[in-house]
Every structure is written in C-alpha cells, then in structure tokens.
Please model this.
Amino acid sequence: MVGKEEIAIECIDLKKTFNDKDYVLNGLNLQIPKGKITVLIGFSGTGKSVLMKHFLGLERPSSGQIKVFDEDITIMPDELLTLFRRRFGVLFQNAALFDDLTVIDNVIFPIKEHRIDLSRAERTEIARERLKQVGLDEKDFGKLPSELSGGMRKRVGLARAIALDPEILFYDEPTTGLDPIMTEMVDNLILETHKHREGLTSVVITHDLSAAFRIGDYVAMLDKGKILLHGTSKDFFETDIELVKRFVTKGLHRGES
Amino acid sequence: MKQMLLVPIHYVLSVVEDVGLFMIFCVDSIRWGFRPPYRYQELMQHMEFIGNKSVLIIVLTGSFTGMVFSFQVYQGFKIVNAQNLVGPTVALGITRELGPVLTGLIVAARAGGAMAARIGTMRVTEQIDALDVMGVHPKQFLVSPRILAALVTTPLLTALFIYVALIGSHFVSVNMLGLDEAIFLHKVYQFLEPKDIGQALFKAAVFGFIFSTICTHKGYYTRGGARGVGNATNEGVVKSMVLIIVSDYFLTNLATIYYRMFR
Model:
C-alpha cells in the first residue's frame, strides 16, 4: 500500500449505482498520493471511467466520500465545484477538442475564461508555449481539430489540459486506439509533462498494463467496483491474487508481441 | 393483472418526471443567462445563425404564402362578390396566425434541428464534460445564449414574414387578379390594427422560446453516439413543431381575453 506521502485524492467507501440494483462502484477505498503518477487499470467495464467522473465531480456518488486536497467534493455545491475544478486538467479519451475552434483557440479557451487579468497577446503567448511543450509544430496552430491526426489531437488536448497549470492531471485512456509507436510517444509525453511540473499529481486510466508499469509510480487495479490491489509494480509481480496474476501475465504477453 | 394496471400509472409518472426535469432545465438555463460572465459573443453568433441565415428562406416562404393565400381567398370571395375584402382577410390571417406559426415551424426545423444536433454531438464527444471541467458552466455557455437569441430573433423574422407576405398578396391581388389598389390598401388599413401585430410578435417570442428550450434540452441530454444525436434532433424538431401548433390555439385565446380586458 501507499506509504506516508501527502494525499491528493482520497475515496472512502465509495458506492455508485445507476439503477438501484447493480453497483458500478461498490465500496471503493483509494488514496492517491500527491506529486506521483498513479495508474488505474482494470478490464473494460469495471467502472474506471465512472470513477474518474466522480473525481471530477461530474457524477455524484450514491454514498461515500471523495476528498480532494482534504475537501469533500461530494457535498460541494455546483458553483463552488465549478471553481474548484480549475485545479484539474483532463485529457479526454478522444481529446474532446472544440471542433469549431482552431488548435490555438482551443488552448486559449480556458485561459480566456479564467485569466481575465491577462491581455490577448499574453494569453496567446501562454497557449503557444504550451503547444510547443507538447511538441506541436507552429504551422499546425491555425488548423481545425478535424484536420489533425489522432496523436496530434491528443497533444493539443494535453496542451489545453495544462494551460492553467493544474494541480491534478487526469488522463482518460490516453493510448486507446493508437498504434504502438504513438502509444509510446503518448506515454513519454505523460512522463515528460509530469517531470516538468513541480508537485503535479497525475492520474492515468488505462487498460494497457505494460504502459502502466512503465509510467506509473503506483498502480491500482479495479475489479467489480473495488480496488483489488494498489501498490508498485513489484507488488503486482509478487501478488497471490489469482485475477491480478492472470491480468499481469496476459497483459504483458500482449504488450510484447 | 396487477402488472397491467400499473403500466399506465408508470407511464403517467414518467411523463410527469420528464416534464419536471424539463422545467428545471429551463429555469436553470434562464438563471445562468443572468450571471456574469455574460456571453455576448455567443449571443451574437447565435442571433446571426438563427436570424440572418433564415432571412432568405423566410422571404421565399413568406412571399409565396401571401400570394397563394390571396389567390385562394379571391376564388372564394368572388362567389359572394366580396373581392374588396381579399386584402384585409389575407392581412389578418397572415398577421394573426400564419406569420408567427409558419415562421416558428420553419425556424424550429432549421435552427432547432441544428441546435439539438450541435449540442448532442458536443455531449457524445465529451466536449460538454470538457467545458464543465474547465470551470465553464455548459448551460450558461451553450444553452442560455441560444434561448435568448431565439427569443429575440423569432419575432423579428415573423415581422419580416408578415411584411413580405403582404407584399406578395398586394402583387397578386393588384397585378394578377385585377383588384383596385386603392381599395385593397384602404381596406387593409381599416381592418388591420397594431394589436394584431403585437399579438403576432408575442406569439413568435413564445414559439422561439418553445423550440429553443426543447431542442437544446434534447441535445443536452443526448446519449449513445451518432444514433443518439439523430434521435435527439428528430425528437427535438417534432416535439417543437407539435407544441408550437398546439400552444398557438391557447395563445390566441389568451390574446383575445387580454385585448377584451384592456380595450
């Protein structure tokens, strides 16, 4: 289990049901340490995305608590939650770029919303800098998202996510649907981004096990709405839990082939 | 047997629940529209889309409606030798009913469908979640400006519709059916009153509110990919159209009562 680090996100006995019968999250307890990369893995349909929506306050749990920096976001009123979310950055599965805005306008958007103190030129400067950080070429800044490849959209999405210097950065299935080379590129991008930002907490949701071990300081495995195992990659190789063993051998095998 | 009895009860309950949720959505969207930061740019964009871009279609449908309406009324009135009243009959019919209703239907189909599809696509591609996470309230950003824009532009388009329809009517009556121009205009001035135009603009504003809230609501709660977006658009447009025509009856009664009270 996690050591004595400061806690960024803490879930206490989290339950969520959409129809009063089947529990997507079923008494989940999890502590995500500050300043580290934590990877959440699990088979498809084990509630990973639902859990992330709870972290972001987009869904409210049926019961239980979620504390982010010691503040319970499950009882926070909508207005406060909207303000609180400025401390989050999210890279969505398909980047979720606004398709009527150009690449640079997409990155300027959150800055324009929250930094009214800055002039237009300053906002543009920040956006350009963020886009360069994620390795985007100047000539692509004026393009529309529909003209970009999947990998490039991910980069723009990441640039937008870090535009406001978030304290916690979420990645929802960052490598799903990408080829192996792009996958590696995105993994490196996550590592780079994390390294360059002091005190940033990264939470990656994925089902790609080899990537999880490569980039994650800690890995937490989800099954049937509960955390099956939470620890370092060493813990995963030494475990006795049958399901985890199976997931590890299968996942790594597929990763190598 | 007990099961069968419960089915209509459940149905009624679900309808009540849907209506309640829709009301909450409307109130919420209006409330958010009055909070800073005000979305002037969005408002202008949507007014341009709903208003300016509908002008051509409104001019076309409006002028031909006026023309064919005059023609039919003339055919009927000729039998009883009342051709002099073609002008005011058409003018009153267009102003009180056809103008606002047809404008409402046309704009609902054009702009309402686009609203539902646009917001629905943003929902299924997680763009609405992205807005939420960036600390921008999606209703304030997407819904409120659209409702306000529809509320302002539908009456304007209705005014345009009535204007071109009367021009069309004048053209057909005077140039093609050979009615006397002076009598036509005199009779129109005699019977058409400002309150008729006021009633038309009021109805149009209500229709604008109806289609914009229904279509944004359908789009906002879209689920299930491209199919979901298709369903949302379809349902939004159909429900708006039906509700516009149904509410027209009640609005007409309301207006009559109002004018009777404050004459």
